[in-house]
Amino acid sequence: MAQDSILEVEGLTKTFHTKNGVVNAVKGISFNVERGEVFGFLGANGAGKSTTIGMITTQLLPDAGRIVVGGQDLTKNTAEIRRNIGVVAQHNNLERRLTAMENLYFHGRYFAMSKAEIKEKSEDLLQRFGLWERRNDYVGSYSGGMAQRLKIARAMLHDPKILFLDEPTTGLDPNYRQILWDEMLEMNKNGTTIFLTTHYMEEVEHFCSHVAIMKQGSILARGTVQELEEKTGTHSLNDVFLVLTDHDGVDDRKSANGRE
Amino acid sequence: MTEAQRTRTAFFAMVHRDLLVQWRDRWEFVFRVAMLPFILILTYGFMLPRVGILPESFPTHMFCGMVGMSMVITGIHGTAVPTSMDFHNLREIEDRLLAPVSTRTVTIAKMTVGVLESFIGGLIVLPISLIFMGSSISLELAPHGVLLLILVLILTALLSAALGLLVGTIVKPSQVAAMFPGFLMPVVFLGGIFYTWKQLSPLPVMQVVTLIDPLTWVNEALRAVMTVQVESLPLALTIPGIIVWIAVPGFFAFRRFDRMVYSH
């Protein structure tokens, strides 16, 4: 593994036992992410991306394998790893009966931030993400796009060293997609590593320095967009994706018979 | 800031969060907690003794049972329903589970809120009891009664939170509606609210059955402290009994909570 890796994954495996049988969601994958890069993690629905992120972000227990985040082994230093990561889930896991300010306040306190620091950063983030006017409304009344922006603001609040975003721009209008990318690139410029999954290939082409493509629990290819294009003899990431995944429009989860 | 201070800050924030959410639904909470004791006290503590169907001393029997029931049911409900909703429907707990603290901190914060709600449940019974049964209740405290009462109340609140956490990790939100007839009703009516355990001696099988109910142990302990003139099981038996009812469900609740954290 490279010495400046912020994330090292080795032989990561996860199997789910469902009513319909055993699902090998992640099959012994290995990869690493360099400090300070924007890393794109691609795959069709059901390929195992979210399961992989779940394990890396301490939300799922791997069956086998090793995860090292910022030099800390995940099984030994879970709390320390959580302090250094920010996680934006695909689904809405905001506190709906709390306001945006309260969501950020409690998140900051979970990370032992001072009240003054939380207030200052919350005001800044809510203004940057266009939520300032609705800061005192219950989050349950937010639209999908507003909730998505707040989730991202919340994940950024404690200045994580690595930010995991699971399809962060889904549901955002082009304006806020641009705002989000500006914010993420700003964070990235300041040293935060970005790890994201997305279905928008043009975002990956523009912003990601490295890419990994996953299918049915395995990583098919890794490298820069240019390397992958050369390897597959194609001229766009979209074509790379289609060639590598042999995509027929059917979700991986149908063939994998289970969860992503 | 030390690790212990960080954990303490996160813990109090988690408790604060739950209490704030509960405060937003405070009238629904009061209605939910007060309604069952109100109806039972009105019927069994006021109407039936007044018309002669039950003896005039009955409210004294019943008062301890009402306090015990209200605390246990409120604590179970206050821990179980949010836990179940958090994991299955809303998934709001995820932000707390991603906090840089152990899962145990999140679990204990949930139980702490259950304990506090349980105390509130006990307090709500007092004015209702005083209004409808005040003149008929005869309390005779045991020696060191206040200290023993505090001990029994704390243990009762812990019991309710442990049971609530266990139930919350078993029951899915779609099954919450069935929780009342399927679990809470048997706990209430077999828990010795209207009778003491000794009074069931003509029905030895029922005596054994009611011992499976945690509320029996709580109510017998409360009677032994607050109404010594009423024959009840000795505290030397009921206090260890309550502790067992904290430890066993608590052990399984913690295990199930850990499992839920990594599988929800």
Secondary structure topology:
The complex is a heterodimer of chains A (260) and B (264).
Chain A: E1 5-18, E2 21-34, E3 38-43, H1 49-56, E4 64-69, E5 72-73, H2 78-84, E6 85-88, H3 100-110, H4 115-128, H5 144-156, E7 162-166, H6 174-189, E8 193-197, H7 201-207, E9 210-215, E10 218-223, H8 225-232, H9 237-245, H10 252-256
Parallel strand pairs in A: 3-8, 3-9, 6-7, 7-8
Antiparallel strand pairs in A: 1-2, 1-4, 4-5, 9-10
Chain B: H1 3-24, H2 26-50, H3 58-90, H4 94-97, H5 103-133, H6 145-170, H7 176-189, H8 204-211, H9 214-226, H10 235-261
Helix pairs in contact in B: 1-5, 2-3, 2-5, 3-5, 3-6, 3-9, 5-6, 6-9, 6-10, 9-10
Task: Give a summary of the structure in a few sentences.
Chain A is 38% helix and 26% strand.
Descriptive tags:
heterodimer, A: 260 residues, alpha/beta, Rossmann fold, 6-stranded mixed β-sheet, 4-stranded antiparallel β-sheet, 10 strands, 38% helix, disordered C terminus, B: 264 residues, mainly alpha, 10 helices, 77% helix, 0% strand
Overview of this protein structure:
The complex is a heterodimer of chains A (260) and B (264). Chain A has a single domain (5-94, 160-256), classed as P-loop containing nucleotide triphosphate hydrolases (Rossmann fold), CATH 3.40.50. Chain A is built from ten helices and ten strands. Chain A has helices at 49-56, 78-84, 100-110, 115-128, 144-156, 174-189, 201-207, 225-232, 237-245, 252-256; strands spanning 5-18, 21-34, 38-43, 64-69, 72-73, 85-88, 162-166, 193-197, 210-215, 218-223. In chain A, β9 (210-215) and β10 (218-223) form a beta hairpin. The longest helix of chain A has 16 residues, at 174-189. Chain A is globular and about 50 Å long. Chain B is built from ten helices and no strands. Chain B has helices spanning 3-24, 26-50, 58-90, 94-97, 103-133, 145-170, 176-189, 204-211, 214-226, 235-261. The longest helix of chain B is centred in the first third of the chain and has 33 residues, at 58-90. Chain B starts with a helix and ends with a helix. The interface between A and B is medium-sized, with 30 and 30 residues.
